Amino acid sequence: MKVQIEELSPIEKKLSIEVENSRVIEELTRAYTALGKQVKLPGFRQGKVPRRILEQRYREQVEDEVIQRVVQNAWLEAAREHKVEAVAPPQVTNNSGLKADAPFTFEARVEVKPKVEPKNYESLPLIRAATQVEDKEVDDRLTQLRESMARLENIEGRDTAQMGDFATVDYQASVDGKDFPGSKADDVTVELAPGELVESNVAALEGTKVGEAKELDYSFPADYRVEDVKGKTARFKFTVKGLKKKVIPELDDAFAKETGEAQTLEELRGKIRADLEQGKRNKAQGEERDALFKALIERNTFEVPKAMVERTIDNMLENRLRAMARMGMDPRQLNLDFARLREDLREEATQEVKGALLIEAIAQKENIQTSDADVEKKLEELAKEAKQDISVVRKYFKGANEREGLSLRLREEKTIEFLKGQAKYS
What we know:
There is one protein chain. By secondary structure, this protein is of the alpha+beta class. The chain has helices at residues 21-38, 51-81, 135-148, 253-259, 265-299, 306-326, 338-365, 372-386, 390-396, 400-422, and strands at 2-9, 12-19, 91-93, 104-111, 125-126, 151-154, 166-174, 184-191, 213-219, 233-247, 424-425. Strands 6, 7, 8, 9 and 10 form a 5-stranded antiparallel β-sheet that branches. A 4-stranded antiparallel β-sheet has the order 1-2-4-3. A hairpin with a 2-residue loop joins strand 1 and strand 2. Helix 6 (306-326) packs across helix 7 (338-365). The longest helix has 35 residues, at 265-299.
């Protein structure tokens, strides 16, 4: 096999590959032999159909399959032999076709990882982020926790709705006298508070008694998810069936136990403070990483392959969709413009790819490595953070790809710490 390589740009190469005729003939023979064992034709026993008959009937199909196989095998062999760091499948051009007495030739254009020679990565400018947690932040988190654990209790001795109450209601609605999806429901809880009806806030029920009905008009937002009513005004009829009040738990040891996180209020405060401190440290690390990437990219100019950027955009979108799902949102019902989202993420993804390539190059230049001990220590940290047994985490990272990914992540962290150690803080 003959291979000629032309560098079209720092991120693209063209390989002109010539495969010897004998290799092609061997592949054709193998293909027709396999086909002959499967084909059933009248007048011939299975496995005994002459090749000339197979060629008359199946030549185009067989040659297409052989070309695909020869191209794939030859391309992989050439890339491996000549150390072509492809970042995407090649674009193949084949103008010769298969000929009985001539080599098979094709061209493969492929995006490759750029060779990055990092420079000026000493004394990068960084701003030291504050990670100290104030008492007020702990108090605010406790307040949020109490609010989240509040319960609703029936209101006794009063049957007239007031602001701040929670009302159990039946409702039915129409737009231009017609029903629409979700226009009727029973035993729904709404809050008498300022805000949007679509968020279960119905301040207009103030003064309504239990058993009474009240009608009101509501204009749906122009971007509302239900197509039939977006931007339209609906007529609602609410019937109040009961009133409840929110009861917030007292801030004491009993509340701490109820959270399932601590036995005493003091212990709960300590855990909240530790969580807040960890959150601030994580945020600071993210901000410092972004700042390092930005400074490195400003000092090192180079192109990056489109395929690497597109894959990074894919990962970013997947992470965002997972975050939406964790928040209880169904992305399929949000009418997301994925083409627009991809374009919005392109610049961020490009910076991420450039930064990661620079970090990798610096790690190689400074001989920054990770050991099995480093990986094991990280597994223990992950188990502690996830509050899982170490055996569960080890099982997740048992595969070679998962373990290699974790090792690369650790090398990046080590390299960032190396750069931070040389950085100029302000």
